[in-house]
Design a protein that fits this description.
Blueprint lengths: L1 H17 L3 E7 L10 E7 L2 H14 L6 E6 L2 E6 L4 E6 L2 H12 L4 E7 L1
Antiparallel strand pairs: 1-2, 1-3, 4-5, 4-6
């Protein structure tokens, strides 16, 4: 009986550990703005929606007036930009998220922000 209870408790812990926090990146960006001048914030939450709400709150709290959620992710996310374009990425590692963001953004872009939860 003790082994069964221990197995059930272990399974519950492992299952709840798999439901990790999600993340999101909100940005205040527009055409003509350098990547180094983009306003942004990273948020976390129990779900992607909660993380997006947190990112928006933090972005506005930082003094940015035109925040938009750019990317929501479970593990890692990134936002790249230039004066004329942007790209987003997500993946199981920060390097993968950055690579996808840069691929989507194109030449002349720089990583503005990346984060992993």
């Amino acid at each position: 009986m003790k082994k069964l209870i221990l197995a059930a408790a272990t399974a519950l812990i492992l299952h709840s550990g798999a439901v990790m926090a999600a993340g999101a990146i909100a940005v205040d960006d527009e055409e003509g703005v350098k990547a180094s001048e983009v306003g942004f914030a990273v948020g976390t939450g129990a779900t992607r929606e909660a993380a997006a709400a947190d990112a928006m709150k933090e972005c506005k709290k930082a003094g940015n007036s035109s925040c938009k959620v750019a990317v929501r992710y479970d593990t890692c996310g990134a936002y790249a930009g230039s004066k004329s374009t942007f790209g987003i990425g997500w993946g199981s590692t920060e390097a993968a998220a950055k690579s996808k963001a840069m691929d989507e953004c194109g030449s002349g872009c720089k990583i503005v922000v990346s984060s992993c939860d």
